[in-house]
Every structure is written in C-alpha cells, then in structure tokens.
Amino acid sequence: MLENCQRHHMVLGLGLLTLVTIVVLIVESRYAADGLARRREQQFVIENNSTCWQNEPYTIIQECQPCSEFDIVSRSLGVCIHTHYKEVLRCKSGEIVTKSCDRVALIEQRNFIKFESIAFVIGVLSYLISYARDRFPSYSLDNSN
C-alpha cells in the first residue's frame, strides 16, 4: 500500500500525525499536572503541621530534592515518607517549613524534549543516508567488464 502513495501524501500524513501527537502531549500534560496538583495537596505531609506556605507568600530555600536514605528508613523526617522528596520553604512570617514535593516535572519534561530531539536527528540522518544510498549508484571495485 505504501508503494502506491505519492511522496507528498506520505509527508503530509506524517506531518499531520506529528501535529496530532504534539497537541495530545500538550493537552495531556496540562490535565495531568492539574489533577496531580489537586491530589498531591491533600496527600503531602507537612513538617510541624505548618501550612503557612498555603496562606502567605514564601521563598524557596532549597529546591525539591531527594531525601537521604537515613531520612527515609528512620522516618526521622515525616515529609520524606510518601514521596521521598523534600523542599524547604521560608514563609513571609519567617517560619521555615519542610514539605513534601513531587519530583521536579521540569527536569522530566526537559529530558523528554532531549530524547525527542535526539530521535528526530537520528531519523533525519537515517533518511539522508537512505536517500543517498538510493540516489547515487554504487560502483563496484571489480572491473571485470
């Protein structure tokens, strides 16, 4: 069936599939992020039962990072039990709060974009090599004509 399709029809079809894939990924990531945020707000454990970061402005002292093995195993830091990640905040009132956080979504998104870019480059290089092999005749080293 593919051999009956013209080149511009195949390129148009691939372009439409790529566009649909990108739209689905964008929509899915937005809905997934909203749903996770709602569920995680209720699930996260907050050290010292402080919720000042929900009611007032805060600054991030320490970005979301993995808890140490000791904190997880010994349960010495309650926020590390559920997600194994912690974030340290300073509320405007001066209170310092350690709270659970989800793995940094930005890093995962960046890794996904890198993977897709590398896959695209490899695909283009494969196409160019295949095109060159098909376009240019190979000459035999054997001159036994």
UniProtKB/TrEMBL annotation:
The chain crosses the membrane at residues 12-33, 112-132. It comes from the Eukaryota. Signal peptide: none annotated. It holds the Pfam family JTB. One of its GO terms (biological process) is mitotic cytokinesis. Keywords: Cell cycle, Cell division, Cytoplasm, Cytoskeleton, Membrane, Mitochondrion, Mitosis, Signal, Transmembrane, Transmembrane helix. It is found in: Cytoplasm, Cytoskeleton, Microtubule organizing center, Centrosome; Cytoplasm, Cytoskeleton, Spindle; Membrane; Mitochondrion. GO terms for cellular component: centrosome; membrane; midbody; mitochondrion; spindle. It is a single-pass type I membrane protein. Belongs to the JTB family. This is Protein JTB. It comes from Drosophila willistoni (Fruit fly).
